[in-house]
Design goal:
The structure holds two protein chains of two kinds. Chain A has 15 helices and no strands. By secondary structure, chain A is mainly alpha-helical. In chain A, α3 packs parallel to α14, α5 runs antiparallel to α14 and α11 packs parallel to α13. Chain A is globular, with a radius of gyration of 22 Å. Chain B has a domain of about 150 residues: Alpha-Beta Plaits. Classes of the chains: A mainly alpha, B alpha+beta.
Chain lengths: ~400, ~325
């Protein structure tokens, strides 16, 4: 086995795990369907119609993807702007999750666009300045760059380029501010997108407060994603944690849960204000009303209460389960706004095709693969120690490890 | 790029002028100024050239579908499966499509009353599609037409989401898809001709002219025969006004026209968009303030150079 092979895929003998086989099949099928979509057009793969032009690839890949990738800016703001330094160990994995999330948001978007190769024209001819989508596009492109710049220090560390890494550390605060500014803009603008469709989005969800709802709930999604993601990666990648790194993940989880509970509380009342402002209370007693109440009570009020309970009893497990529930809640909200309550009067209502679902699932799976690949190589969960532990961190260690095996 | 920029000659397009302005004035100012600038453009355009329109009198429409045939020919669209003189087509409700920019539908009002109505792009005075378009491929022309730049469109389909009439249609079965819709026969109008559908209508159900004149004509007809008409002109107020206007003998919703208020659609998002410069200007200062507030006097640097400080994870 040569060095490059090891660097790229690790030990080939360990590759054939059930997870790898199943997810590999999903990715292969997804790639095939992507080929079909590029060859035959969107109609061959999706259930989109002339009256429902946006489906799962916008509703899930873009709307939900961006919201769930909010962990990056949420935790960067917590640490770098609000000075809560104890959360620092969570920054890098959150940035990586966020960055990969956005990468796959963009891939999903590219698949959904009719002529994605024309995307550069949007920047070359910035004509659409009144368009919410223009703002979203610009911010997402800029924020993708910011996140890449925020993550590269891990790379410099891995290469052992200490001077570059030190130089980069001076940029951190500026990148943090830029990241929060750009995220504020495009997270809220994803909600503003629907302001132009008052006759199409169900009145219970249509609100002039949509931008505010989307922004506030993105922080909730971000913090909850960090709770879930840190729990998973510290379990699954425990061997990547340096023995010198001993932080109390439970403590951090409880802290994040506390923050999420507070923002969920605010969000709950914001939603009530939106409901009162819309003044369509009678619609609550309709099937769509029950859906709305499920979202408001089951996925906003309940997680808020559970977070409070978990924090008060100092039970990190409850907080983690609540984190997962909250993430599902934000997903549910984005699904409702962009798909379920959109074109609500239309029969038959849009339901994604199995092919759309497989492609979306393949994107998520690729994201997980890429996350694993990077975490297994770069110093993400633990940074490079003063005294490197063999086989855990730098490229040099990797060569050494390779030498030992040979 | 020259061809891209210079394509819309003749009638000057608002989109292009806005773009030139953007280059000239510079990004941030233009962003702050967009909505005002746009309103000024529309007003100026109206002064320069009268906005044209079409009055559709559904009481005169006989449902012959000549307009469909003329539209098909004028736009060089593929021939439909069933010919235009096949009346059984009217038995089903149809929508416009990438290959049919106008369709006539028959609405059963009661047992004896059937009304046919032509539908097509309404050519809004303040088009939602144009304000929503990420690259302003939908352009409001000064003569009233909303036209489409097929050399710019990226296929995001936000125009379809924005249009309350669901007019823009997307070529789902193409690998290089475009949006298709009625052009108000923009090219024909430049040559001084009427839209093809108007020219061919044998029942005089369609009248082409200055929108202001058409509104007077519509009201004249209603006054002359108040029992035959609903006392309202669809498109006078809806969405701030449309170039195409309808008068009818039954409420418009019975003819498949959506009930819309007078809200100007681009203004639905302009409020949210106007917060962008504010966030861009205020957020960084505010966040920097937070940073210094929470980190104290000399705290701004310590956590960024972790190698100089205590090893990470030591704090509990």
């Amino acid at each position: 086995m040569n060095k490059l092979t090891y660097l790229l895929i690790g030990d080939p003998k360990k590759m054939l795990t059930p997870f790898n086989i199943i997810s590999g099949l999903v990715i292969a099928l997804g790639l095939g369907l992507t080929g079909l979509r590029l060859w035959k057009g969107l109609g061959a793969v999706t259930n989109l119609t002339q009256t429902t032009p946006w489906g799962l690839w916008i509703g899930f890949d873009v709307m939900t993807g961006v919201a769930l990738a909010a962990g990056g800016y949420s935790i960067v703001a917590t640490v770098h702007l609000f000075g809560l330094k104890k959360y620092e160990p969570l920054v890098r994995p959150a940035i990586l999750t966020g960055f990969l999330g956005y990468v796959f948001v963009v891939i999903g978007l590219v698949l959904d666009l009719g002529q994605p190769w024309r995307m550069p024209l949007v920047m070359i001819f910035p004509r659409g300045v009144t368009s919410v989508l223009f703002e979203v596009g610009m911010c997402v492109a800029a924020y993708l760059t910011v996140q890449a710049l925020e993550f590269v220090p891990a790379f410099w560390e891995w290469l052992g380029w200490d001077r570059l890494r030190r130089f980069w550390s001076k940029l951190a605060i500026w990148l943090a501010i830029l990241g929060v500014v750009l995220s504020t803009l495009h997270q809220s603008s994803l909600g503003s997108l629907f302001l132009i469709a008052p006759t199409k989005l169900h009145p219970l969800w249509y609100s002039t407060y949509l931008p505010l709802f989307f922004f506030v709930s993105s922080i909730i999604a971000g913090l909850s994603m960090v709770i879930v993601e840190s729990a998973l990666s510290h379990r699954l990648f425990a061997y990547r944690l340096s023995p010198h790194t001993h932080f109390d993940l439970d403590d951090l989880t409880l802290g994040l849960g506390k923050g999420a509970a507070a923002i969920l509380y605010v969000y709950f009342f914001l939603k009530l204000i939106g409901l009162a402002d819309g003044n369509r209370w009678e619609l609550l007693n309709t099937p769509y009303g029950y859906l709305y109440l499920t979202e408001l009570i089951g996925f906003v009020a309940l997680p808020c209460a559970l977070y409070v309970f978990g924090v008060r009893t100092r039970n990190a497990k409850i907080v983690r389960v609540t984190g997962a529930l909250t993430v599902m809640g934000v997903m549910f909200n984005r699904f409702n706004v962009s798909m379920i309550a959109m074109n609500w009067q239309e029969t038959p209502h849009y339901v994604p095709s199995w092919m759309e679902m497989v492609v979306s699932l393949a994107l998520v799976t690729m994201g997980i693969w890429l996350f694993r690949w990077i975490v297994n190589r770069l110093p993400v969960l633990s940074e490079v120690e003063e005294k490197p532990v063999l086989g855990t961190n730098t490229l040099k260690d990797l060569w050494a490890l390779e030498g030992e095996r040979a | 790029m020259r061809t891209l920029l210079n394509k819309a000659d003749g009638v000057r397009s608002i989109g292009r002028r806005a773009f030139m302005k953007l280059i000239g004035v510079g990004g941030a100012t233009a962003l702050l100024d967009t909505s005002k600038a746009r309103a000024a453009e529309v007003a100026e355009a109206a002064r320069r050239e009268p906005a044209m329109g079409v009055l559709v009198d559904t009481t005169l429409c006989v449902g012959c579908r000549s307009c469909e045939a003329a539209c098909n020919e004028a736009n060089g669209l593929p021939k439909p499966e069933r010919p235009f003189d096949d009346d059984t087509v009217l038995d089903q409700m149809r929508d416009t499509s990438p290959t049919a920019f106008t369709v006539v539908n028959r609405y059963e009002i009661s047992k004896d009353v059937q009304i046919t109505r032509k539908q097509q792009c309404m050519h809004c005075r303040e088009p939602a599609c144009s304000s929503a378009c990420i690259i302003r491929a939908m352009e409001k022309q000064s003569n009233g037409a909303v036209t489409y730049r097929d050399d710019l469109c990226i296929g995001c389909r936000y125009c379809m989401v924005a249009c309350p009439f669901n007019v823009p249609k997307f070529e789902y079965s193409s690998a290089v898809p475009l949006i298709k819709k009625c052009t108000f026969c923009f090219e024909r109008q430049k040559e001084g001709k009427q839209p093809a559908c108007v020219e061919v209508c044998p029942a005089d159900a369609l009248t082409f002219g200055k929108r202001s004149q058409l509104l007077k004509e519509a009201k004249k007809r209603i006054h002359a025969d108040p029992k035959s008409y609903i006392h309202d002109v669809y498109g006078e107020q809806e969405l701030g006004g449309t170039s195409w206007l309808y008068i009818a003998g039954v409420p418009f919703e019975q003819l498949g026209l959506p009930t819309l208020d007078n809200k100007v659609y681009p203004e639905l998002t302009s409020g949210a968009m106007s917060t962008v410069p504010a966030v861009l200007l205020m957020w960084p200062a505010l966040l920097m303030g937070f940073h210094y507030f929470f980190h104290g006097k000399d705290g701004a640097h310590d956590e960024h150079s972790r190698h100089d400080g205590p090893p990470r994870g030591s704090e509990k």
